[in-house]
Amino acid sequence: MAAVSSMRKMYGLCFHAVRQTAGRKASRLLQHRAFRVTAVHQQQPFDSSLEKPQFPGASAEFVDHLEFIQPNVISGIPIYRVMDRQGKIVNPSEDPQLSKETVLNFYQNMTLLNTMDRILYESQRQGRISFYMTNYGEEGTHVGSAAALDPNDLVFGQYREAGVLMYRGFPLDLFMAQCYANADDLGKGRQMPVHYGSRDLNFVTISSPLATQLPQAAGAAYAMKRENLNRAVICYFGEGAASEGDAHAGLNFSATLECPLIFFCRNNGYAISTPTSEQYRGDGIAARGPGYGMLSIRVDGNDVFAVYNATKEARRRAVAENQPFLIEAMTYRIGHHSTSDDSSAYRSVDEVNYWDKQDHPISRLRHYMTARGWWSEDDERSWRKQSRKTVMEAFERAEKRLKPNPELLFTDVYQEMTPNLDKQRESLWRHVQQYKEHYPLDLYDKYQH
Q1: Domain encompassing residue 235
Q2: Which of 72, 116, 191, 380 has an alpha carbon within 20 to 30 A of 179's alpha carbon?
């Protein structure tokens, strides 16, 4: 009985403790609720329409109706121009007021490039070189942009910017040497034709894969920014290359790292045989700039002054403000994509003739010069004759030069020749000696073995 009485007392104590604890919790809960009710009564009425998004990934407002953004939300990014098709200045305040000497230099570079293209294109058709790509119709994008840059600015080209290099002073002999892969070629005969490069002229050697130059340009521009060099980088590419993944990487890196970089897109209507209508659905390439937080402009690429003005201002601000710019130059590729292409298979002759005869950057600039009395028919005939003679002389010199030294196949890979390369070199020369009737070594530059 004593044990039972003891258990009852213990149970009663525990029950009393539980009731006390529950009572205290209930009291605190009632006090908390009273505080919340009091606080609510003290707050101002809440208006959800004034609520602002706090998400860190975008700048926007809330909306309370379902609506998808239409791709044609605006009518289209306008195309900046200075001259009309007849070479007349549309808005005098936009005239860059370049000197006669400068404008003549523009014209002579554009036409000299055109002449070199014709001769080297014919050379390939005759089997004298293996490959070529012309620049017909896009000369204004080259010269207008090149003239707006500082000589120390670094250029990353694609494969149709020969005019940029020509404007910077790259001699005809070196253009020919590269295409002919002779002993004078700065690339030592290792690259296919039209893959130019010049360390002295700050022109990075062109590579074949599309769009690889975009992230490379972003990296170079970031390095320049860190070193505070007061230099800019310009990166050229076609609208087809803008579909590559490397294009996204380059554009996004340059924007987030705030690099002094000009992305210059030559939108010439075709990515080899693919027209722009099949290449993208948005409003060209300039429309992508805002998505990357990048200042963008679309210009008339057949108007050398419009290209000059846009590139000059973009270059100035890129260096001063450390930010990238996107320029989309609307132009037209009059020639075939390359000597490996027949563009008549995917576009009409009438279409090509329109751009060649009615809206060509060279004829537009000639109209401008003629109206000012800076150029005449006699000047045109004389210059065409002189420029063709100059190109032909360089062409003939290139053909007579020897091929590069075969030893150069093994150099520039490592600072010092490695055992495996030594073995390969010895194997090559054993093969050449064994079958020397097939290897006319007198056609190659002096070699040592």
Answers
A1: 92-400
A2: 380
